[in-house]
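Write out a record, fold above all:
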Amino acid sequence: MPTRHLVFDVNETLLDLTPLDSLFARHLGDAGLRRTWFASLLHWSTVTTLTGDFMDFSALAGDCLDAVARARRIDLDADAREAIFTAIGRLPPHPDVVPALERLRAAGFTLMALTNSAQQTVDAQFEHSGLSEHFDHVRSVAHARCYKPHPDAYGVATDTLACAPASLCLVAAHDWDVTGALRAGFNGAFVAREGAVYNNAGTPPTVVGDDLTAVTDRLIAAYG
């Protein structure tokens, strides 16, 4: 079955989270805690999915931020929380993103974004970053009441595009996300940002590249 539909993860794959580092440094005393917070958020989204207790992703993000602050014995005030979450809605795309999306659309691919973030959050992110015009569909997995990498989360893409999983390819900078899509019947492309290594415990990706430019080259060569 031809793969003509590309489904993109959003945070870290398309949008750059590093502008949050200065805010974590200012309000929590350590820029590196941004990574701690995001890893905790992914952890707890998985816990809520596995236990069948779906929680809004934005609420989870707030709880994880509070936990990071408590671990540092910091009382994070309302202004600091607002500054961080306002910045999340205004994250910029990585420099390679828009040129890659333009090439993929010109090659005839349907482009969809699928994120664990709440629909309101991703809509704000795409409006601010200017990415909306490059996508045919932008969806939150919240419509499935579970988070990636649960198979039902990827069903939001197959339902939206009204096609079989084998005709889709998930593009993500997270090996767990790519593996989840592959095990749901998708193809998978791994964007190895910052030298990331794909864990051998995962299902091997269909396409691998050091950045979205390299991944785009290989997607067009394979499916264009």
